[in-house]
Amino acid sequence: MTGTRIRRGGSSKLTTGKAQTRQGRGAGKGNRKKNGSFAQLLRARLPISERFMHRAMTGGIIAIVAVALWGVASFFGLPSMVHMELAELAARTGYEVKKVEVRGTDKMDDAPVYTIALGQVDRSMLNVDLSAVQHDIARLSWVKEARVFRRLPETLVVDIIERTPAAVWQYKGLLTLIDESGVVLEPVVPGKQPALPLLIGENANRQAPRFAQLMEAAPALKPTLLGATWVGNRRWDVQFQSGETLALPEGDELAAAALVDFARLDGTHRLLGRGIQRFDMRDPDKFVMRMPKGKTPPAIVDEHRDVTQQPPEPETPASAPQALASRDQG
Asked: Per DSSP, what are the bridge partners of residue 7?
């Protein structure tokens, strides 16, 4: 009677302890089936099918394995070995550099370009380092831009954009050709100087962009320009083909304003070609002329500047560019 209880004051229904245990277990299982696992609930709430989730997990595992295998292969140098084998196979089947074609060269000597590109001859097309070849060619003084590409099965093509010569730079007795940004292109043979402006002085080549912008302020003077000297690393002396020199002030704005004033005066009084040695406009309120000995200065009245005359300079047998280079007007 140890496993039986008698309920007093009621019916004589008996319940054993084992039966209670079975009922409790049955109720627990029912609750678990009703509530379900957390993973099942999450899958039920996500708008993703179970099949897709299995595929995603499989793909992730494959990717991890592939990365691991690639790391092991890289450690043992297998990718480079495969690349070399493919390169040799390509060379054996005719994909090997046999020709070099250079395009776009006009003024420059294309021999240095061929020298660099021909270093790739007899290499497999797969082994040509296009970036390295392009970098080496772009370092040539005349080359503004370079592009190198393969033309299968056996040709390496080089496209060149040349720099444009803009002036001749004279410094320490040497003449060199420069472009509009002041890059030195090549030496100039004395006596074979091209018809370009002459920039004289230390660092005058680096000032070439500023000088070109300065001349844009008075384009009417461009046809009469011979050259200019960069004086004291701070200002310009402009030389004209008719032999006159114009001293401009420091600073881009002041120099441009003085050049515009001079173009206006020359248009009104025809100053160039009248034998005047030098014009000085460094003072924004004055216009100073230096006349040769024995010559009468032109009658000039200007409402913007006071016109004055200086004593003549002693004549020198030096040519105009040499005289311009040897003087330091400060």
From this structure: none
Q: In sequence order, which residues have a C-beta less than 8 Å from that of residue 284 and are 6 or more positions away?
A: 249, 254, 257, 258, 305
Q: How far is CA 86 from the centre of its chain?
A: 35
**Residue 156: strand pairing partners:** 100, 150
Residue position matching structure tokens 């690393």: 233
The CA-based angle 182-197-188, given to 5 degrees, is 70
| CA–CA dist 168, 185 (Å, integer) | 10
Beta strand 184-187 pairing with 165-171? unpaired
User: Which percentage of the chain shows pLDDT scores above 90?
Assistant: 46
How far is residue 223 CA from its own chain's centroid? 32
Query: Average pLDDT of 154-182?
Result: 94
Q: How far apart are the C-alpha atoms of 160 and 146, rounded to whole Å?
A: 5
CA dist list (Å): 253 to 25, 206, 215, 250, 294: 99, 18, 12, 9, 36
User: CA Rg, the chain, in Å?
Assistant: 44
> Is the entire prediction scored with pTM above 0.70?
no
Which one is predicted more confidently, 36 or 104?
A: 104
What is the rounded distance in angstroms from the CA atom of residue 116 to the CA atom of residue 136? Answer: 7
Domains and CATH numbers, the chain: 94-162 (3.10.20.310), 165-326 (3.40.50.11690)
Instruction: Spell 255-279 as b/e; 16+ CB within 10 A means b.
Output: bbbbbebbbebbeeeebbeeebbbb
Distances 308 to 84, 266, 278, 313, 330 between C-alpha atoms, Å: 81, 16, 12, 15, 20
Using the predicted structure, report yes or no on whether residue 177 has a pLDDT greater than 90.
yes
177 Cβ neighbours under 8 A, 6+ residues apart: 165, 168, 169, 184, 185, 186, 187, 188, 194, 196
> Which H helix or E strand runs over 185?
strand 184-187
Q: Break the chain down into helix, strand, coil percent, rounded to 5.
A: 40, 25, 40
